[in-house]
Amino acid sequence: MTPIYDVAEIFRSICGEGGLVGQRAVFVRLAGCNLHCRVENVGFDCDTVIPRSSPMSADCIIHHVETVGKGCESVVITGGEPMMQLSKDDDDALLRMLHAKGFSLTLETNGTYEIPDDMRGYFRRVNCSPKLGSDIKLTHADEVRMVVGDMTDIDAYVAWVDSIMTYGGLWLSPAWDANGPNRDAIGYIIAWILINGRVTMTVQQHKLWGLR
Ligand code: SF4
Q1: How far is C-alpha 77 from the geometric centre of its chain's CA atoms?
Q2: Quick check: CB of 49 below 6 Å from ligand 1?
Q3: Is the CB of 110 within 6 Å of ligand 1?
Q4: What pLDDT score was predicted for residue 47?
Q5: Atom of ligand 1 nearest to the CA of 36
Q6: Nearest C-alpha to atom 7 of ligand 1 is from which residue?
Q7: Domain spanning 4-208: CATH 3.20.20.70
Q8: Ligand 1 touching residue 36 (CB < 6 A)
Q9: How far apart are CA 207 and CA 212, in angstroms?
Q10: Residue 149 confidence (pLDDT)
Q11: Average confidence (pLDDT) per 10 residues, the chain, 212 residues
Q12: Pairing, β 140-141 against β 166-167
């Protein structure tokens, strides 16, 4: 039976953070997340779980990707937590069909789901934003990104990530408030990197550019 995906939105934009920053991509945002990120538990409020969604087949999603993408070959599968839906099928139909059409696929995940080896082969990049204390199943990510609030313990976070997974690069990004990137968090990240090195500072530039 053809799987049906719960899709929050599909749109073309420019990647605003991490290793693909500045490059265009079509974003497929699958609905729902198994975590509930709030200021109280992770230092920022989630702004990517959208309370509306539509049921779509893989064919329908690909049609939308091709329509809004207008030749864009890069597709970012994001959420929410996309593995909640993708992990139901090791040989996921959507990923298989996108890959067969030649799209370059990136996954954005919170790391709480394993990625089967067969599925991993579909992705050019796996980017993970693990939330401190969550039950992480992912063992390797090309990119780890952490949003830093003004009270975040970066030492504890980096030590925790080092203990649970390997990664190609670690990026720290200040949380946003009503006035933009949190100034205290920016100062905290700068001070940490000047002392420790190792990680890369980033800002969610798509928000500065007025993009999703
Ligand atoms: S893991 Fe990501 S998508 Fe899920 S609640 Fe936290 S910030 Fe939102």
Answers
A1: 8
A2: yes
A3: yes
A4: 85
A5: 5
A6: 46
A7: yes
A8: yes
A9: 7
A10: 84
A11: 90 93 97 92 85 94 97 97 85 94 98 93 96 94 92 91 96 90 93 95 90 86
A12: parallel
For a ligand 1 pocket test, name from 35, 108, 112, 145 the mutation site with the most ligand atoms within 8 angstroms of its C-beta: 35
Distances (CA, A) of 91 to 4, 119, 146, 199: 14, 6, 29, 34
pLDDT of res. 85: 95
Confidence (pLDDT) at 150: 74
- Give me the count of residues in the chain: 212
Which sequence spans correspond to the domains of the chain? 4-208
pTM over 0.85: yes
**Residue 104, class by beta-carbon neighbours within 10 Å (0-12 exposed, 13-18 middle, 19+ buried)?**
middle
Q: Is 43 in the pocket of ligand 1 (CB under 6 A)?
A: no
